[in-house]
Amino acid sequence: MSVSFSVPPNHISVEDPSQESQLLHPGRQWLPGAYVNPAGNCLNLNSKRKLRDIAVIWRDEGDNESPVNKMTFEKLRSEVWYV
Q1: pTM for the full model?
Q2: Within a 10 A sphere around the Cβ of 73, how many other Cβ atoms?
Q3: Nearest 5°: CA angle at 82, between 80 and 83?
Q4: Domain of 4?
Q5: Minimal CB count within 10 Å: which of 14, 48, 59, 69?
Q6: Are both 57 and 81 inside the same structural domain?
């Protein structure tokens, strides 16, 4: 999936039978210790994504007759950096 971790996980998954862990992570805890930057992963390009590719498709809410809008990764990255 080409997910980049800010801090890599300690393990792929661990089983922790403690009551607290079972409430937070029923069954198993996946990728314990990992930290990711969701925005960074969404905006990063890779061998399958190029700046000219469409990143977001939307239509104004409540107006089914309005045109479908599209934004490329290049424009999305520009807007994010502007903010």
Answers
A1: 0.54
A2: 19
A3: 70
A4: 1-36
A5: 48
A6: yes
CB 49 within 8 A of CB 56: no
Residues in the chain, overall count:
83
Do 58 and 17 touch, CB atoms closer than 8 A? no
Q: Are residues 31 and 57 in the same domain?
A: no
Is 42 a domain residue?
no
- The Cα 63–Cα 71 span in angstroms is 19
Give the number of domains in the chain. 2
In a domain, 9, yes or no: yes
Q: Which amino acid is at 73?
A: F
| Whether the Cβ atoms of residue 58 and residue 69 lie closer than 8 Å to each other | yes
